[in-house]
Amino acid sequence: MSVFNRLVMILLFAGLFVLGVYMVVYSFDLFDYSLNSLPISDFSSGLKSFITNAEDGSLSAVTIIVLVLLAILGLIWFIAELKPPTPRRVRMGQGTYVTRDVVAEEISKVAEEVPDVLGSSVNVKARRSPGAQVDLEATVRRGEDLGPIRSNLRSTVQEYLSERGLPVSKLNVKLVEADPRQTKTRVQ
Amino acid sequence: MGRGRYVEAATYEGSEKVSGVVVGPEDLEIHIVVRYPLPRPIPEIAESIRERVAPEAGGRKTTVVVEDLEVAEDERL
């Protein structure tokens, strides 16, 4: 269960608990609260007219839109619940894993050794299959020829990782031009 | 041995705590830190540990997790 779904379930159960407490209080006339004081008849007549309108097909456009949005939200939630969670660690082989931090640190280290790269930012996603999906963003000086830098960076990172056996199934390299005065390293 | 991000990789038995190993009823996790220079590629190191430990794991599913890579200190310094 994802964190979002867990939060929704916690809120739902908290709401049900509060409703249950109210129901007990009102049912047993505790603390001068009584079921007779609740506007149940108004609510039931409103619900009845809503159902009648729905059966007759005479709901307002706003109501139909809200119902359709609720149905879409429920469907999205259901699919999100069925989808298996993304693994936390990068799979190397059968029963062997490496943490995402290790992969990110190694890639960052080698990327910043590449000439013309002034800084880097690495995002590693683990997958169910062996190998990680890596999004590498490298900062370069403005006005540089980006093509050769990108290919050099890609080949250097891939070579370094394959030497160490760190599995990367997809490597996305993005170069960002920046002012050297605002980057981690000014000169390479 | 690695200890996990929040020092969660440990097993408590009686008054003793063993860091780096998580023993469950059906699985066993071994958290390691690999030190440079690497004698072999990392997957091979992890696999050799898994092969060595698995027969002693009592049928538990054995997993090896590489938690960190660190540079060995130069003893001459």
Give a written overview of the molecule:
The complex is a heterodimer of chains A (188) and B (77). Chain A contains five helices and five strands, in the order H-H-H-E-E-H-E-E-H-E. Chain A is α+β, with helices and mostly antiparallel strands. Chain A folds into two domains: 3-82, no CATH class; 89-182, 2-Layer Sandwich (Alpha-Beta Plaits). In chain A, helix 4 packs across helix 5. With 77 residues, chain B is α+β, with helices and mostly antiparallel strands. Chain B contains one helix and five strands. Chain B has one helix spanning 42-53; strands spanning 10-13, 16-19, 21-23, 27-36, 61-71. The mean pLDDT of chain B is 83. Classes of the chains: A alpha+beta (188), B alpha+beta (77). Chain A binds chain B through residues 89, 92-93, 95-99, 101-102, 105-106, 163-167, and chain B through 5, 38, 40-44, 46-47, 50, 61-69. Strand 2 (96-99) of chain A pairs parallel with strand 5 of chain B, so a sheet runs across the interface.
Q: Which tags fit this structure?
A:
heterodimer; A: 188 residues; alpha+beta; Alpha-Beta Plaits; 3-stranded mixed sheet; B: 77 residues
Secondary-structure blueprint:
The complex is a heterodimer of chains A (188) and B (77).
Chain A: H1 3-27, H2 40-56, H3 61-82, E1 89-93, E2 96-99, H4 100-111, E3 117-126, E4 132-141, H5 146-164, E5 168-178
Parallel strand pairs in A: 4-5
Antiparallel strand pairs in A: 1-2, 3-4
Helix pairs in contact in A: 4-5
Chain B: E1 10-13, E2 16-19, E3 21-23, E4 27-36, H1 42-53, E5 61-71
Parallel strand pairs in B: 4-5
Antiparallel strand pairs in B: 1-2, 3-4
